[in-house]
Specification:
By secondary structure, the first copy, chain A, is an alpha/beta fold. Chain A is 42% helix and 14% strand. In chain A, helix 7 links the parallel strand 6 and strand 7. In chain A, helix 1 packs across helix 11 and helix 5 runs parallel beside helix 6. The interface between A and B is large, with 36 and 36 residues. The structure holds adenosine-5'-triphosphate (2 copies) and magnesium ion (2 copies).
Chain lengths: 258, 258
């Protein structure tokens, strides 16, 4: 069944959504059936792939509440092998509800059960997390086999890694003993002293867990979501597209699907 | 008493903390007694001004729980007229607790009562909000006289403004009838097509509510927090310092303190 990866970092704006969409597209291009789970009420991964949630009957909020099976909310995208389970602000209300209603005895594992029901249909499942360490992110950590943490090459982003490690420890101790941050990805890298220092610091601390490929700052990555496409389809020769293709290759260790 | 401004936008990484620290420093430099309230469990505003919360007895989590008066947790910074009420990850636990414990009948207005107790000592109080629309941000909205929303000149940041407006509407209807988004600030502006489009879009929609001055993308702004200083003290002639001085002037309409 699928390899489930939670893309998370409570620091805001570090490239979580950009990584889910474009790494997902890179895996799909290599032939892997890839599902993106938009688990952020902002719904950026959904809108970034041209999914208009106002036209949909079901989103992940219905799945979290348990009113509908996850299978029914999965949408194809314009890119082959790439699927998405979309979200919108309703997900925030659903999270508030399952977190406070005694009917849901284990609100932390609702997503895990939903993902298990579709896992056989995919090779990779990437979960886009919101910039918090609340119930939604805990759900993603309970469902995931590993975490990929994007780290912007800036001071505040490095600080946030400590807090992330302590939450992962708690989830590991309570509901998912195998969980760890398996991957760190340097994002928005520039040729500045700060950028180089942060990159060196991260590689020194986490060694091989840091992808060899870093994502350069590339305005095309910021433009692609405004036309609802991944970078691979929007500007295939851009530095951003090249980087995410290499990262998809590194993640899948060069192998192609079954 | 003080003008209380919540600096908020649930989109992550748009420059909320950078604006609180540097606009705060700009107001302090103009002679206004300025208090920064770090209301984000990441504690970036605190660490960005060299406040080591592990050495402190009190932070905003104690104030939220009601165990200590806010006055006791306010720290001076190295910059004249600039003070900070610091936070760390304990604030997330405190928010979880007051949100679920029946002892706190109105958890939404805990911060408003705390800020009222110190408001007479300051001219401006800026609240740094986390990248979510949960209880902490609702508290900031209940306490504030207005909201300043930083908007990164990128696609996703513009999308988030709609969600922000709908939460503000709810807070206005329930606990703070005068609340509105009084200011929009364009951040990380570059000479790209995307940047220009987002700026034009925002000015068309919100007109005079958008600061005339936009903050340019300037790596010195990202470097300053790693030495615990505002941009004004770190690199006084940088484009970032010039921009935040102008914004402080615009905000205070050119007048100096009482
Ligand atoms: N390598 C890059 N180069 C340039 N811009 C980028 C890059 N990666 C992401 N961006 C842009 O930076 C902004 C933040 O990225 P993104 O929204 O993916 O971060 P996030 O971590 O998902 O944010 P949030 O915490 O709000 O969920 C977006 O406008 C995005 O388009
Ligand atoms: N104008 C700018 N030019 C260059 N870098 C900037 C600028 N403004 C902010 N930054 C950097 O961009 C990153 C995001 O900014 P910041 O942390 O202030 O955003 P935020 O909205 O407070 O994030 P969060 O949602 O995590 O609270 C930080 O590393 C900061 O140093
Ligand atoms: Mg995101
Ligand atoms: Mg911040």
């Amino acid at each position: 069944s699928a390899i489930v990866i939670a893309v998370a970092n409570q620091k805001g704006g570090v490239g979580k959504t950009t990584t889910v969409v474009n790494l997902g597209a890179g895996l799909a291009e290599r032939g892997f059936r890839t599902l993106l789970v938009d688990f952020d009420p902002q719904g950026n991964a959904s809108s970034g792939l041209n999914v208009d949630t106002s036209q949909l009957e079901l989103t992940m909020s219905n799945v979290l509440l348990g009113t509908d099976p996850m299978d029914n909310c999965i949408e194809p995208t314009a890119e082959k092998n790439l699927f998405i389970a979309p979200s919108d602000m309703d997900l925030a209300d659903a999270a508030m509800l399952v977190g406070s209603n005694q009917k849901y005895a284990f609100p932390q594992t609702l997503l895990r059960r939903a993902i298990e029901s579709v896992s056989a249909d995919f090779d990779y499942i990437l979960i886009d997390c919101p910039p918090t360490l609340g119930l939604l992110t805990v759900n993603a950590f309970a469902a995931a086999s590993t975490i990929l943490a994007p780290v912007q090459c800036e001071y505040y982003a490095l600080e946030g890694v400590r807090d992330l490690l302590s939450i992962v420890e708690q989830v590991r101790a309570n509901i998912n003993p195998a969980l760890e941050i398996g991957y760190f990805l340097l994002t928005m890298q520039q040729a500045t002293k700060l950028s180089k220092e942060v990159a060196a610091d991260l590689r020194k601390t986490f060694g091989k867990k840091v992808f060899v490929t870093a994502v350069p700052r590339n305005v095309r990555l910021a433009e692609a979501p405004s036309v609802g496409k991944s970078i691979l389809k929007f500007d295939t020769n851009s530095p951003g597209a090249k980087a995410y293709r290499k990262i998809a290759k590194e993640l899948s260790h060069g192998c192609t699907p079954r």
